[in-house]
Amino acid sequence: MEDQVWDAIVVGSGITGGWAAKELTERGLRVLMVERGRPVEHIKDYTTEHVPPWKLPFRGKGSRKILDEDYPIQQKAPQLNETNWHFFVKDREHPYVQAEGTDWSWVRGNQFGGRSLTWGRQVYRWSDLDFEANARDGHGVDWPIRYGDIEKWYDHVEDFIGVSGQAEGLPQLPDGRFLPPMEMTCLEEKVKGDIESAYPDRRMTIGRVAVVTQAHRGRGPCHYCGPCERGCSVGAYFSTQSSTLPAAKATGRLEVMTDAIVEKVTTNADGSRATGVAVIDATTRERREVRGRLVFMCASTIGTTQILLNSGGENAPNGLANSSGTLGRYLMDHTIGLGALGFYPGTSYPGTQGNRPNGIYIPRFQNVGESKPEFVRGYGYQGMAIKIGWSAGSMTPGFGAEWKEQLGGPGSWMFMLSGFGECLPDANNRVTLADERDSWGMRQAKINFNWGENEKAMRKDISEQAVAMLGKTGALQVIPGQGFGDGGDAIHEMGTARMGLDPKTSVLNAHNQSHDIPNLFVTDGSCMTSSACQNPSLTYMALTARACEFAVKELEKGLA
Amino acid sequence: MIVDRRQFLQHAAVVLGGALSTSCMDAVLQHDPGSPLTTSRSVLTAKQRLSVDAIVERIIPATDTPGANDVGVTDFVDFMLAEGYRESQVALFMTGLERLDMMSVAKDSPSFADLTPEKQDAILKEVEVEELAANPNPFAALFNAGQDRAFFALAKELTIVGYFTSEDVVKNQFTFSHAAGYFDPCAELKPGDKPWYGGL
Ligand SMILES: Cc1cc2nc3c(=O)[nH]c(=O)nc-3n(C[C@H](O)[C@H](O)[C@H](O)COP(=O)(O)OP(=O)(O)OC[C@H]3O[C@@H](n4cnc5c(N)ncnc54)[C@H](O)[C@@H]3O)c2cc1C
Predict the structure, then answer these.
(1) Of all atoms in ligand 1, which is nearest to the CA of residue A80?
(2) Preferred mutation among B7, B121, B165 to probe A, highest tally of A CBs within 10 A
(3) Are A486 and A520 in contact (CB under 8 A)?
(4) Range(s) of the domain holding residue A465
(5) Dihedral (CA of B160, B165, B166, B169) sign
């Protein structure tokens, strides 16, 4: 491996790394994928899949002790529990620094497959409302692309990963290439009807989700067991393991290196071209270099930024590919928080059978059309009807025989709406390198982040509108959400190596290519010029696939 | 409809038109879904176990269905206290147990476990009313997952979880499947139907 020059090196094996590996190998390149974490093998390593509750040591409740010792930050992801915590990092092994006054949750899984194993699978296209937003209101720099540039790549990605959803014909949330949608429960149908008739400008649709509802490219349809995050042996949800890895492997041109921490991107003497990456063996701590004609950075927003900042040599004291000085700046996340909970009488809606790994979505309605709130941009809601059965017992006063009967019964219903709000790019929100090092000797990422006034104004509205909407749905009681998440809580961190037209104010061009170093591409969330309010991973995938096509053509023209 | 793992995978293989290879099927079928819970760790003394036996059985007594003692809830509580909580929470629980004994003395009994069920209920009721007065928002637990729970609130929560996740209760009182194979969004329960066991 040492003497070999790969056509491309892909750093990271998560959602975007998997896509880069697939696209580049399918276009004929010999690719080395370098992943810092342990290998996770499809099927074999899904050790908790379908384990019934009585066989879980903590019966699914987890352990406060283990959560507090090993996962003090990771546990802020509500999805984390004892059945999947092995797919999240142990915080003390993977430290980072939060600047004074910053609360930033860096939620991640350093293993083969990255967060593709644990993600929520919600996938929404962006529209020109989003790609034109910066140009329209002047926050941030203009995106160098528009919806028309990425539309066919959304098609390409959706066709491959399989997305179930309902076409709605909304300009702010373009329809995709959908597999049959999942169904709404009776209560969800009722809430949808009530909200849509009270608010003609609002729509509630079933979640668009990267879970296949029919056999798709060798992957089995969802069997509605529920907790995808444990891993899925039939491959019903999109992950690197279920989807992009098999495709890349099938070409015979992919090599994978795990437990290999990329420390730096290496360059030629004048720093004008990347030559490969410097790697630390996670177990032996041995250091070595691997060489490639192209380098694709897919190590996740903060991971990639940390590597690039750390790659600056004499030619680039502020980090590689940073002649603009914007690398690390404009860190964004979505501002999330519970909008409201509504409670409904128990017997008025039937129950469900099967566990649907998906909820509902209310697309953005603020600053769309006529609405003119006190803030710019907007937010969407995710939500669902939730059956509250026996688990509500600890919140229900009483005990004894009668109370027990009630708990074992069909239970009542709750409806949850939580908002995901757009975050504006702010130069002060940034990733830098701390003086502290991790146990491999690499300088830790340091995060400076504060929510801005626009996000704060938006949060208020997220809560108020949710309460008002559920108020129209026959709820016995509606309670407003309490508190909003810290930075990072939406796990949609992005923006630190933004795309732009001007090399002076952005790191990447319209093809995710470094303005400074033409054989260096960054296609994870760090490339994002604005944050929109939709879950971003579908857009990362589309941009990755698009960049791969471009890079291969450039390589053929003699790029590196 | 309850589908076991083998049936489910066979079903999946049919739907996939054989795309799921036999070797892959074998791998899934041979994979042992976890080993049964061994409650090796324990912090409760024999005397404390008797108290916990009594408390959990008052919370979920045997009726025409099993009670907490029938499905080993005390073992679960003990395991959780040993492995599942911070010291501060465990200490708070132990103090709660002691206090029950002290309250029992006033009812002429050396310990809570020796009281009649009626007297035990009266004491637990008193404790619950007190706790609710101190923390009237029943949903607080939803938002404050990181904080220690009050004694009786924790006892109730552990009893409920221990009981409603036990094999006996899940299999006999609910419709349970780890792979339904379908989603019915509006399933009317007919008399005699068992509710769906969600959240696997
Ligand atoms: C619980 C949860 C729910 C989510 N839900 C959604 C959702 O519904 N919709 C949505 O769009 N997004 C969702 N996300 C976010 C989504 O997972 C990320 O946007 C996505 O995974 C980003 O892809 P990525 O390839 O950039 O990073 P990742 O998938 O995180 O992969 C990065 C990989 O790079 C590796 N790496 C990092 N540093 C190095 C290094 N120095 N050397 C070598 N390798 C390195 C990591 O180990 C990892 O494997 C969710 C995330 C979580 C955790």
Answers:
(1) 1
(2) B165
(3) no
(4) 183-227+335-421+450-486
(5) positive
A268 occurs within a structural domain: no
- Other C-beta atoms closer than 10 Å to the C-beta of A170 total 15
A262 CA closest ligand 1 atom index: 42
For residue A350, the model assigns a pLDDT of 86
Of A133, A112, A358, the C-alpha closest to A258 is A112
**B167 CB near a chain A CB, below 8 Å?**
yes
Average pLDDT, chain A: 96
Residue B3's CB is within 10 A of a number of other CB atoms, namely 17
Q: Is residue A210 part of a domain?
A: yes
Question: What residue ranges do the domains of chain B occupy?
Answer: 5-194
Q: Are A389 and B200 in contact (CB under 8 A)?
A: no
Structure tokens at A463: 């809560």
Contacts for B105 with CB less than 8 Å, ≥ 6 apart:
none
Domains of chain A: total: 1
pLDDT along chain B (200 residues), means of 10: 37 36 36 45 94 98 98 97 94 98 92 97 97 79 72 96 96 89 90 81
Closest partner residue to B86 (CB to CB) among A55, A65, A227 is A65
DSSP-derived letter for residue A526 is G
Which DSSP state fits A332?
B
Do A26 and A313 form a contact (C-beta atoms < 8 A)?
Answer: no
Q: Evaluate whether A233 touches A12 at the Cβ level (below 8 Å).
A: no
DSSP state of A93: G
Given the cut 0.95, state whether the ipTM is greater than it: no
Q: Per the domain annotation, does A395 fall within a domain?
A: yes
Residue whose structure tokens are 């995709």: A176
Residue A498 within a domain: no
Amino acid at B124: L
A47 confidence band (pLDDT: 50, 70, 90): very high
pLDDT tens digits, one per residue of A420-443: 999 999 999 999 999 999 999 999
Which among A21, A551, A548, A560 is positioned nearest to A252, based on CA atoms?
A: A21
* A233–B195 C-beta distance less than 8 A: no
Through-space distance between the first and last CA atoms of chain B, rounded to whole angstroms: 16
Q: What's the rounded Cα separation, in Å, for the pair B164 and B171? A: 10
Query: Of the given ranges (A166-175, A246-255, A287-296, B107-116), which has the lowest mean pLDDT?
Result: B107-116
Which protein residues are within 6 Å of ligand 1, measured from CB? A 11-17, 34-37, 77, 79, 107-108, 110, 114-116, 118-122, 261-262, 298-300, 303, 307, 491-492, 524-525, 535-537, 540
